[in-house]
Amino acid sequence: MNTTLLRRTAPAALALGALAALTACGSAVTAAGAGGGTAAADGYPVTVENCGRTLTVDSAPERIVGLSPAQTELLVRLGLADRLAGQAQTDMHELPNDVAPQVTDVPVLSTSTPPARETLLEVHPDAVVAPTEYEFTAEQGFATIDQLAQAGAVTYVAAGGCSERRATGEVTDLFTDIDALGRIFGVTGAAEDLAAEARADLQAVDEAVADRPRPSVAQLYVEGKTLAAIGAGVEYDMIARAGGDNVFNPEEKLFEQFFSAIISPEEVAARNPDAIVFAVRDQAEEARVREYLRQTFPDVTAVKEDRLVALRTPDTFPGTLGNVTAVRTIAEALHPDAF
What we know:
By secondary structure, the protein is of the alpha/beta class.
């Protein structure tokens, strides 16, 4: 199984840290930073709690690096494109059409993995935003949070990607991130607008699926012929918010240590879900996974009724607007007559 992908999912998924490095922590803004859509000197210092750390920012950072496309997109949508000093892991997925043109001149620090320590430090960031704590793993050759602090950079990890929250994360952790980033970068007006739009999208789904029968759902990650079930974390919350009941749950022994677990095909067949949700990186992978599921589970209700729901892998990463998109995608598949 591609354990690097599992580390990041979220991120992703499938949802993706070492596997245990992805289990996530909450983050909360504890002191007000003033301001509207632009940095305001009198709005600082700003203090934010993130992954058990207290971050204090004395002025608006001007050289920002997003360590995944999902974080880069979020920063651009907050109006920070002109402050980006680097982008990373660019091969993980393409940026939306309206975002990509705004970062064409932003240096690419890495394509398939987080950037090496020296590569990241060479662009002299004063802020680094990441989906998980995995991106700061010294053993992998990445710059650590302490090393970045010594170089003058503040680091922010998506609330759902902090190690102690990975198994209990929720879709609404995204709003913690938007609020915190708005304060850190002095763009609180843009943050409020972005959060309001995402909240409205979630509310629309909530209203559409309210009081409807809840189909049973298995959320799987498929790598070749290896299966991993998702039983906790933001992915689990996506199913619930979309009006489904996950056949795997956080109370099971399988998920005592991590939000996902490798399982046998027989385990899925025994639970006979009404729908199967899975995440893929591209259309070719989607076709392969669909064919595998059809061949492996011909008698499972989800396959017999063709309720196989594909998500974009990046939409399952912690701290991405794609979390909201994923909820709607699942809800529309589970309750097509409600939309």
